[in-house]
Amino acid sequence: MFNLTLVVAGLREFVIDDLGGTVRDATLFFSVETFAYILFAPLWGLVSDRSGRRRPFIVAGFASSALIYAAYQGIDSIPLLLGLRFVQGACAVMGWSLVMALVLDRPDRNRTGRYMGWMGAALIFGVGIGAPVGGYLTRWFGARAPLGAAAVLFGVLAIGAFWLLESTDLRRGLRIRRILRALGATPRLLLPMAFHFVDRLAVGLFVVIFPLYLDTLGAGDAAVRGRYLSAFLLPFAFLQIFTGRWSERIGPYRPLIFGSLAYGVVLTTVGVASLFLLGPVMIALGLLAAVMFPPAMLLTARLATANTRASAMGGFNLAGSLGFAVGPLVGAWAYGTLGFGFAFALCGVFEIVLALGTAVWWLRTRER
Predict the structure, then answer these.
(1) Number of structural domains found in the chain
(2) Helices vs strands, H then E, count in the chain
(3) In a domain, 125, yes or no
(4) What is the DSSP letter of 17?
(5) What is the DSSP secondary structure assignment for residue 7, as one 8-state letter?
(6) Residues in CB range of 363: below 8 A, 6 or more apart
(7) What's the rounded Cα separation, in Å, for the pair 212 and 215?
(8) 171-175 long-range CB contacts below 8 Å, 24 or more apart?
(9) 191 and 154 in a common domain
């Protein structure tokens, strides 16, 4: 995830200044990787469950990503760049999605919640520090320096992946039809996917709408915008270490429902908050997001069987990537319709409706 955002800060210098592209090309450079995630995350999960192996695919995904990032250094064509970016996204998601499945394979099922907490913290911490580090690399060493750094880091990941331990519980040679049938027999897996979709939709909306909203409040400085984003990302990253263990003790449903409900309520206030109040609001959103994310992964882990975990995690990541891709579109439409307040309120309502609907279903299921 560090590599994902490492290249974002220097997109203008690389795509527009160096290659002569447009703003649209710069946004496509980020978007085509997300679309590759959507298409290939479930596919690699099925292939991995079919073979009963994780490590060879993780090594291949990271090694291929390293080679493609190195190839970016010699690119001088926008169409070739975007084509390679799509292939690189397909390779990268093979690596990190199956690493997540490998964590789910750990035999100590009583510790799954804390594993999910640490994994969520790592994901968000990587996202949070990638952009500022990439910005300094671009300033000091040029537009393609973050791409070279990402190539080196992916190479290190590929080498390190040789020492990952495979689970001994996985069966090899399962038919894909049997895996899909097992997934279909567990419709509850759609529940954590739905929460992950809505959560990532909120993040995608923030990418487009939140900086514009800060501008209207007088925060035109990029450093000020960065501080507000860090007020959200830092609590989001570090608190997951504890909320993962908490959801392990009390189960994933309560944190997921009450965390999402509170998150949705606070999210509706973003569009009407002043610049002074927005700091505490962002901290509260980060804390509540940390309550929601590990339980969603924990629920996926508990509902999936040993031979469907990679496929289930692939579907989970597909839902998140799809939400992230749809979020900016929803945010742009909502802003164009009724302004900033409506955009944030709409996203908050999505969270509230999902949380309340899940709460009603969960209570009825417990009664039965």
Answers:
(1) 2
(2) 14, 0
(3) yes
(4) I
(5) T
(6) none
(7) 5
(8) 171/52, 171/306, 171/307, 172/51, 172/52, 172/53, 173/50, 173/51, 173/52, 174/49, 174/50, 174/52, 174/307, 175/50
(9) no
In a domain, 167, yes or no: no
Question: Are the CB atoms for 121 and 237 separated by under 8 Å?
Answer: yes
Q: Do 201 and 344 form a contact (C-beta atoms < 8 A)?
A: no
Residues 6+ apart with CB under 8 A from 103: 115, 116, 119
H or E, element range at 204: helix 190-216
DSSP-derived 3-state class of residue 165 = coil
- Tens digits of per-residue pLDDT, 43-79? 888 888 778 888 999 999 999 999 999 999 988 889 9
DSSP string, 55-67: HHHHHHHHHHHHH
Q: Report the alpha-carbon distance of residue 312 to residue 346 in Å, rounded.
A: 29
Q: Is residue 148 part of a domain?
A: yes
Answer yes or no: are the C-beta atoms of 327 and 207 closer than 8 Å.
yes
Could you list the pLDDT tens digit for every one of the 368 residues in the chain?
888 878 877 777 888 888 888 877 877 887 788 888 888 988 888 888 778 888 999 999 999 999 999 999 988 889 999 999 999 999 999 998 888 888 877 766 677 778 888 888 888 888 778 877 888 888 888 888 999 999 999 999 999 999 988 766 655 555 556 555 655 656 778 888 889 899 888 887 777 677 778 777 776 665 676 677 778 888 888 888 888 888 888 888 888 999 999 999 999 998 888 888 888 998 999 899 888 888 888 888 888 776 677 778 788 888 888 888 888 788 878 888 888 888 889 989 999 999 999 998 888 877 66
d(CA 295, CA 347): 20
Tokens of 49: 């469950």
Residue 171 resides in a domain:
no
Q: Which two tokens stand for residue 141?
A: 């060493």
Do residues 213 and 100 make contact, with C-beta atoms less than 8 angstroms apart? Answer: no
CATH of the domain at 207: 1.20.1250.20
- Please give the residue range of the domain that contains residue 154: 2-162+176-183
> Taking the CB of residue 276, how many other CB atoms lie within 10 A of it?
8
